[in-house]
Prior knowledge:
Blueprint (H helix, E strand, L loop, with lengths): L11 H11 L13 E3 L2 E3 L2 E2 L16 E7 L5 H14 L5 E8 L4 H13 L4 E5 L7 H9 L3 E5 L13 E5 L1 H15 L4 E7 L5 H15 L4 E3 L9 E2 L4 H15 L4 E4 L2 H14 L5 E5 L2 H10 L8 E4 L6 H13 L8 E2 L3 E4 L25 H7 L3
Helix pairs in contact: 1-6, 5-6, 7-8, 8-9
Amino acid sequence: MSSMLKRTTIPLAAVSALLLVACGSGSGTGQAASGGSAGAVAVGREGVQADIQDVAKFCGTKPIKVALADGFGGNSWRKTTRALFEAEAKKCSNITSVLYTDAQADPQKAIADINGLVAQGVNVIVSFADAGEALLPTVQAASAAGVKFVSIVACPGGTPGEDYVDCVSENVDTYGYGLANWTIKKMGGKGKLVMTGGQAGNPYSAAVYKGVKRAAAENPGITILNQQMGDVPVDTSWEPGKTKQVMAGLITKFGQIDGVVADYGGGSVGGIEAFLESGRRLPVWSANDSNQFACLYHENKDRQPTFQIATMSSRNWVVVPALHKGLAAYNGITNDEPSTYNLDIIEDSTDQAKQPKCEKSLPNDAILSSGLSVAQLQALFKQ
């Protein structure tokens, strides 16, 4: 993402197991089985963003140190998520320290970062577990030391509610299925479809791709180009520059591409630029929301009638209930907020009630569904 997420390389079979089995879901949510619990914290419940509660319920009174241990911090999605985490933590007067680490997409540094936070006496760690299962022994050791560890978006393997407090995410499989289903319908049920993801082997993109394949399997007129390239998401590192390079290569290799599903809208802007520079018509495109993604739609829609877009929330806000769960676990306070959040399409260029939102007062990388206000986003991107 100047753009979104990142992870370590894990074999694809292990990736699917990591998100959809090791995290214990029989319903394809990527979370623990519904109705489980980790002490006072419910684990594995499904819900929607409106189910998130007030942090005041979970602050407690004891002095608490909290940290966001990021697997990768070098893009706008991570920067926005960090800002949300810090803003939420400031609402608890008894939180004495709010720390942040950036593993820079290095699994060994991620391990060292978590160990360092434990050594500093941090009580609650929220983490984007980019390195996936490679982090599990470290997470288990942190939990054994009394640290309340909550992952967001991708689980570090193991069992939420036992090896750590919980794993908070959107329903990854239905996210991929929902975006692909919309895209395929707008393609007329036929043509060439490609899915772009983050770093090779990351568990998040692999789980999204599983949903994309499920939608494509229902439409025999669809050719998934990824199946000619190792049957994995295309590696864009969630960065616009690399996405542009990769998409230019795909255009050269395959000619016209009719549909794109991306698991990062901010990175997709580079892919759109590649199409424009190639002179090829822009395809149907779905992703999570990003200001520039919407703005590019409005800039090109009149000249590119095949260019239709849809988005689901970029769901930076999952970091908020993750912090709540960590605080509740540390304080022994009941928390029944969902672990898995079902997302709907929030922007649809073919629906007058859901037109893509382009906010000219904000930078390209701003995410309007993030949970930060326009004023907060303006302040954040001035830093």
